[in-house]
Amino acid sequence: MLKDLENKFLSDFESNQNIVHKICRIYTTNRDAHNDLFQEITIQVWKNYPQFRGDSKFSTWMYRVALNTAISLYRKSTRKVKTQDFSDVAFKMKATDYDDTEEVQLKALYRAIHLLNDIDKALIFLYLEDKPYKEISATLGISNVNARVKMNRAKEKLKNILNP
Amino acid sequence: MDLLDKYKKAWKNQPEDIIKRSTLDIYKLAQSRSSSIVKWIFIVGILEFVILNSLYFFVDMDEAYAEYEKLGLENFIFYSQIAAYGILFYFLAIFYLNYKRISTTDSTRTLMKKIIKTRKTVRNYVLFNLGYMALVMVVVTIASINTNFDHLSNKQIILIIFATLIATLLILAVLGLFYQLLYGFLLRKLKKNYKELATLSDED
Q1: Residue A52, CB half-sphere, CA atoms under 13 Å: how many?
Q2: Any idea which fold A1-75 has?
Q3: Nearest to residue B98, comparing CAs of B78, B123, B79, B75?
Q4: CATH number of A98-164
């Protein structure tokens, strides 16, 4: 029984791990912290997995747990880590047909997002992931109208950073 | 929105993370120890309950009781301590229940609210304890002045009151400052984020 649950969790998590990586990239600025946060999210998703009833998509449910972990549960480790800013490392592409300008844009986007506060980060992330307002407001626990207002402000802030 | 649309396209086309975790990696990670802020809040909270209640072990209770008896305070101390223990268990129960209600599957706002509430339970207990200590100090001072009234000059009485006041305030200030640091250390980020989310929500 537990084995079944475990296997289901592992396959669900493995196939959706890229969502977690993106969240880690948004909320941390170096590899060590990225790995730390990834670990904490994995723990939290597994710990809460028995509560996942399957009435929503696993990924939808995971967005919530992962964002909650990044915003409220994760404590930035205070130890100084002397690693390179990973945005310069992580994007060394394997794909040959990858558009060069898009790579540059993506780097700029991550840099800009790093300057936002934790809540705006979540809003922008959910926007980039094409989540409907209904889901965004439910995830954050605010009203639909509120989500729209906050989203517009967050987008404005992001635009100002990207194109001052 | 055209500017962001361009970036959104880049976001959509971004390659997968270079470090792809295998099922085995994920299994190992899931079994590892959490170091979440909620866990820290629980540990620190329990430590506070333990530390506050073990202060008594550093005092020779028999000697203190003899002192209280001399001042005619044995009843006050006895009953107020029973009350204090009742209140301790009340706070412990509330703290534990609040802690248990914290769930990462809640919405971001509800989760933050519950974490702050749990932490506040401990803070209220500490405030209660500081108040209790101050009360005992004041009562003891009044009683000792009363008992020794005939042997004390007015000047001495004023001096005793003044010294007690200063000592009480000093102890409260040091403990309060220490607590502010601890509380800030654990909750600063959370409170900021909560405010960020809550500001608009309270307007509607």
Answers
A1: 24
A2: Rna Polymerase Sigma Factor; Chain: A (1.10.1740)
A3: B123
A4: 1.10.10.10
Domain ranges of chain A: 1-75, 98-164
Q: Can you read off the two tokens belonging to residue B189? A: 């980020």
Backbone dihedral angles phi then psi of residue A46, each to the nearest 5 degrees? -65, -45
In this structure, the number of other CB atoms found within 10 A of the CB of residue B162 comes to 10
The pTM score is 0.83
Residue A20 — very low, low, confident or very high, per pLDDT cuts 50/70/90?
very high
Counting residues of chain A whose pLDDT is more than 70, the rounded percentage is 85
Residue A163 Cα, gap to closest chain B Cα (Å):
9
CA dist., res. B123 & res. B115, Å (int)? 13
| Inter-chain CB proximity B29 and A94 less than 8 Å | no
- Which residues from chain B sit within 8 angstroms of residue A162, using beta carbons? 3-4, 7
Chain B, 134-173: which have a CB under 8 Å from a chain A CB? none
Nearest-Cα residue of chain B relative to residue A72: B190
Contact A139, A48 (CB under 8 A): no
Q: What are phi and psi of A115, to 5 degrees?
A: -85, -10
Say how far apart CA B31 and CA B193 lie, in whole Å: 29
Min CA distance, A109 vs chain B (Å)? 7
